[in-house]
Amino acid sequence: MRDLIIVIAKALVDHPDNVSVNTVEKEHEITYELTVHPSDVGKVIGKQGRIAKALRTVVTSAAVKESKRVSVEIVS
Length: 76
Prior knowledge:
It contains three helices and three strands. Helix content is 38%, strand content 26%. The two termini are 20 Å apart. The mean pLDDT is 93. It is globular, with a radius of gyration of 12 Å. Strands 1-2-3 form a three-stranded mixed β-sheet. It has one domain (2-75): GMP Synthetase, Chain A, domain 3. It is found in: Cytoplasm. InterPro entries: KH_dom-like_a/b, KH_sf_prok-type, KhpA. Belongs to the KhpA RNA-binding protein family.
């Protein structure tokens, strides 16, 4: 899952070397914290948050096999 987020994010940004994902696991939830270069935050979020919403939808769909809730947070 982490690799999926990295591949998608690197395709969107101008500074792909600065893309990283931190995984935070709790009892019934996994949170992926996506960190990008400060100038690329807008590109990952998109107009009115459409790209971020699509990224979250893809990750949620791919995580159906897991019995935990999955979320993606964008950190600058």
